[in-house]
Each structure stands twice: as structure tokens, then as C-alpha cells.
Write a structure and sequence with these properties.
Blueprint: E1 2-6, E2 10-17, E3 30-36, H1 38-48, E4 53-60, H2 61-73, E5 77-83, E6 89-95, E7 100-105, H3 113-124, E8 131-135, H4 146-155, E9 160-164, H5 167-175, E10 180-181, H6 185-192, H7 199-205, E11 215-219, E12 225-228, E13 234-237, H8 249-261, H9 267-280, H10 292-299, E14 303-306
Parallel strand pairs: 1-4, 1-8, 2-6, 4-5, 8-9, 9-10, 10-11
Antiparallel strand pairs: 2-3, 6-7, 11-12, 12-13, 13-14
Helix pairs in contact: 1-8, 4-5, 8-9, 9-10
């Protein structure tokens, strides 16, 4: 079973207008609400792929109730810890004529020690042999070493952890030795404290981590991703598509990777499906993740090269 962890979930509201006119009434032509957050996105894409996962996280207030309810309605199993503060929310305003969007977001709620302890106990109950996707940042009030503590604890139970985070949480998490890490190229640059852009630079700077982490994927947007493992090192290049929205592309990539690897599929195939999912996620409007037909179509055109 795949478990996903989202410590900073988000209740997203997306409104579309033809054009935003200031100091006037603007008619909304389309409105959507979505449960958001990096681990939640992973669970939603795994569902699209035909897989199952259990979404873990922290949720509070009316926003938290609505968010969890949406996930349940989508057929995703949830096991969230209730917190005292209100789950954060956002409003995205998309202007169709100008093809631009504006994001308004509330702050992340602070998490108390009792809530941290409750969540950690829940994590400790994850059964042996599971796959756990840790995505996003630690919540306000939590130690930057929290993910590293989770990784260290779960490794003792033969649980494979896939980590996608940034800055201090990534540095400490990598040193704890997860099964897989998936930074994007900018997050990887912050990890190695270098300016990284070219594949040759990634190949060089990834060397110190290869004995610590079994699988490493660095995503590079429209250029695809590079993956490193004992099975081989690969570059996966997607076909060119018309990008409408890139939010959630990295989470979608990780979902495809987790889906294949949880079925003991080869790393090359995991990278291929992951890049297809990430690319498919860029085709829709804000808040809309991959469609299965787009994933299947793009996957046939993903080019994998071993180097």
C-alpha cells in the first residue's frame, strides 16, 4: 500500500473570469474547489492511474472538514489528524483573455506539540513493506528534522520512503537515507548549494548522495527528468506540449514513479510513467491534475536514454 503525507494541506478555490476589471463587479464564468497539497496531489494522481493510497495529514476547522470530504468523495482513503487551527485556503483568479492567474493564499496554521505527537504515532502504525510518499514542507511549529525522524523510524520496518521537499527538510531528510528523493532542479541546487542547470552538473553534484539514497530523480520541467540508480542512470524527455498550468506537475511525476515502484516495476518504467504524468498535468487549468487518456498518449512519446 502507498501512504502519502501532507502536513500543509490546502483547500483550493479557482475562479475564472474573462478579464479582471478593478473597482467594478466581475462575473465569475467558472468556479471549482479542490483538495490541495503536494501529498494529496500524489494520492489523486495515483487514483487516476487506477491505484490506491491512504492520505495522511493534518486538517482543522471547516476548511479541513471540507477538504477531507472532497477526498472521500473522490474515492481516496484518508486518515487525517485533527488540529485546532483552520486549514489554510487559497483563491486563484484566472483571467481568460490575458491567460494569467493571481493566487491569494492564507498562512499555514501552527501545529501544537500534542498534534505533532498524535501524527507521529499514526505514522508509526504504518505496516511493514509499505511505500510512503512524504511531500511538501513541515508545518509551522514543527522541527525541520521531522521528516528525517519519520524516515529513520520507518526504515526499521522495511518501509520505502519517497521524499519530495526542500531546504533544511531536504538536507536532513536525504542524510537519513530514504528510498528515493525527487527534488526539482532548483531544489537540488539548494541542496548542493550550487547553481545547477545542465545535466552534466547534476551528474557531478549527485555523486555524494548515491551511497545514501537508492534512487534519485531530478525533475527539470519541460526538459523532463534525470534518474540515478544502481539499475542505471536515465534521462527521460517528454514530447513538447502546450503548457496551460505547471502547478502540480512535480507531484504528478512522483505519483507515477510511486505507482510503478510500489508494484516492483523497473526504475526505467517508473521514470517514463512519471514524466508522462508530470507532462499531462500541465495541460489542464489550475486545480486540474492528469487525465488518464493524456497520460497514456504522452507516455508513448517519452524518450528514455541511458547514460
Amino acid at each position: 500500500m502507498i501512504y502519502t503525507i501532507t502536513l500543509n494541506p490546502l483547500l483550493e478555490r479557482i475562479v475564472e473570469v474573462e478579464e479582471l476589471i478593478y473597482d467594478d463587479v466581475n462575473r465569475v464564468v467558472e468556479e471549482r474547489k479542490n483538495p490541495g497539497g503536494k501529498g494529496i496531489d500524489v494520492s489523486r494522481v495515483i487514483k487516476v492511474l487506477g491505484g490506491q493510497s491512504i492520505a495522511l495529514g493534518l486538517a482543522g476547522g471547516y476548511n479541513g472538514l471540507e477538504l477531507v470530504g472532497m477526498l472521500v468523495n473522490e474515492g481516496i482513503v484518508t486518515d487525517f489528524v485533527r488540529i485546532n487551527e483552520e486549514t489554510r485556503s487559497s483563491i486563484t483568479i484566472y483571467q481568460r483573455k490575458k491567460k494569467i492567474q493571481t493566487l491569494l493564499s492564507t498562512s499555514c496554521p501552527p501545529i501544537g506539540q500534542i498534534e505533532v505527537d498524535s501524527f507521529f504515532r499514526k505514522v508509526q502504525d504504518i505496516p511493514m513493506g509499505s511505500y510512503v510518499v512524504i511531500s511538501g514542507n513541515v508545518a509551522a511549529g514543527m522541527s525541520g528534522s521531522f521528516f528525517a525522524q519519520v524516515i529513520t523510524t520507518l526504515k526499521e520496518k522495511d518501509i520505502r520512503i519517497l521524499l519530495d521537499t526542500d531546504e533544511e527538510a531536504l538536507k536532513l531528510g536525504v542524510n537519513a537515507g530514504p528510498f528515493l528523493v525527487k527534488p526539482n532542479v532548483f531544489e537540488f541546487g539548494r541542496l548542493v548549494e550550487k547553481s545547477v542547470n545542465e545535466i552534466g552538473e547534476i551528474v557531478e553534484y549527485v555523486k555524494p548522495f548515491r551511497d545514501i539514497v537508492e534512487y534519485i530523480i531530478v525533475s527539470m520541467g519541460a526538459r523532463g527528468a534525470v534518474g540515478f540508480s544502481k539499475e542505471g542512470d536515465y534521462q527521460a524527455v517528454p514530447p513538447k506540449v502546450r503548457v496551460r498550468n505547471s502547478v502540480g506537475a512535480g507531484d504528478s511525476l512522483l505519483a507515477g514513479v510511486a505507482f510503478v515502484m510500489s508494484q516492483q516495476g523497473p526504475f526505467e518504467e517508473a521514470l517514463r510513467l512519471g514524466v508522462a504524468c508530470g507532462t499531462a498535468a500541465t495541460l489542464g487549468a489550475a486545480g486540474i491534475l492528469c487525465k488518464k487518456e493524456d497520460i497514456d498518449s504522452i507516455k508513448k512519446e517519452v524518450i528514455i536514454e541511458k547514460f
